[in-house]
């Protein structure tokens, strides 16, 4: 989505070889980081705490012969590695020249060429389809095609070698079906079959037909199209929607696989999957379970439905679970001999379907090449700083300099430390997680959010009521939710769409037992910057105000009697007097911010961070001044800033974690507001 673009681009500009080398040198989990300090005359003291998150993470996999090829996620440069199953080692690697993640891999019928489609920040003219000659793996993959859609999320190769791509521009452009012809090296669009779709996640091809699945799993709601499955005639390039009525209420077609005479179809929403007869699309079989990544072995069709891998027997119509352990997100499923093979966020996993047992091969131990990553959420307290990554949370112990990595399925989008315990808002659809370093237990879910509320956005602590407060977004249906988790009782209170049906709960803050919810609306019309005062115990609205921002709210913070807020893109500052419930100030942040930002309070002052700058807001005049220019943090889903008990600030500069001691703050803090 749009909030990813700026900071990924800055990483490409600022990360460089030096940043990668420094990160690789620090990859030992117990290695203490050097902490060089910098201070300009009269300025803050900045301490570099080393790479924030270093790991190998992935977003796709495909078995070709005896080798599982794995596409990286959130690494610079993006890379494909080959994991050789017989020897359980990494035997090959190639780096691509653009993009930030690889979600799509496909091989031609001969197994000679592996194609990769990348996710990228914008239409930059660089290739987003690459080809790797597996016969000469020491030679790099080459860019062969560029589509007019931002992201490629699925690839398929027809028997004649032509390549088909699905993806789309998410909330801005309806997705088109694209074809790359290796004979002519031309990439052409076959058009947009559904202008109301926001994404295309799946494509498959036979000699006669290209199957193209669309829907609205990102930026859904507000009239966007439901799931549809288009069969394109490869001769006429005309299409027909063939999705059976049984699953037509689904949100999106998420997976397509050509099997033995059938097309395996995964649909998000209706709790069912479909096997469609390739010769006669009107004939189909319903599998009464949602699934993706279908593969066939004899009369069994394997598929993934997290947290497991399942088998559907075509003859008996029975479903059995063949991988029972929760291994986290899985990125690929294949058949190797009599085994099923999947790749999780951490391991290559061989599954024996006859015994429902599995063997895992750790990718890091196998030599998967990691590197510094763009970061997610951030929290500081009790001597630790936690930084969210993909499938992991990095724990920086400040006293020793030790960095350890905590496996946590999904992404910690935001976090808070309370009494030494970490609480995170965990994407995708994982709710609220907790981690207590005194127990040694890995982070685990303590509270689920309502169905569809898949993207937690902001987390804070209500000390009066003893509640972890979280706001979230519904990617597929629009709107969002409020959640309050009580760590003592383990109870969670939620409210779907507390602002309205269009605004997500982008930001949360709390004072005197009242939660304040900041709205953001991704659609073209409707309210987009509403602030709602919410009673988290009674779970009801107290009052609301619209500060009149032209874009949605990015962040909220409270100091004294004032609620501070910043909006997106237009980069506006607003201040609300909580005693009078009046808007008392609006200002311009465009000089220090271009889109997303975050706010925190330290030593009685509200601080902010944007994609470029750390800044402070004067508590009397509300004037904005720069603390650190050119911070250029390496953030995956919007910048973050946190303060510890001593008032020290933490954020990232590039992909490194930094500590900021704003020693000049007292000069700004002339007196506290009444």
Short description:
This protein is mainly β and 674 residues long.
Features:
five-stranded antiparallel beta sheet, 4 helices, globular, seven-stranded antiparallel beta sheet, disordered N terminus, Thrombin, subunit H, Neuraminidase, 4% helix, 674 residues, mainly beta
Overview of the structural elements:
By secondary structure, the chain is mostly beta strands. Among the domains are: 292-365, Beta Barrel (Thrombin, subunit H), CATH 2.40.10; 411-546, Neuraminidase. Helices cover 4% and strands 50% of the residues. It contains four helices and 58 strands. The strands form 14 sheets. Strands 33-34-35-36-37-38-39 form a seven-stranded antiparallel beta sheet, with no helix packed on it. The longest helix is centred in the N-terminal third of the chain and has 10 residues, at 5-14. It is globular, with a radius of gyration of 25 Å. The two termini are 41 Å apart.
Q: Give me the count of strands.
A: 58
β-strand amount = over 45%
**Shape estimate:** globular
Order of strands across the biggest sheet? 33-34-35-36-37-38-39
Which range best describes the helical content: under 10%, 10-25%, 25-40%, 40-55%, 55-70% or over 70%? under 10%
Intertermini distance: 41 Å
Low-confidence stretches: 1-33
Please name the CATH topology of the domain at 411-546.
Answer: Neuraminidase
- What's the alpha carbon Rg, rounded to whole Å? 25 Å
Average pLDDT, to the nearest integer? Answer: 92
Strand-pairing-aware structural class: mainly beta
Number of helices: 4
CATH superfamily caption of the domain at 411-546:
Kelch-type beta propeller
Q: Which CATH architecture of the domain at 411-546? A: 6 Propeller
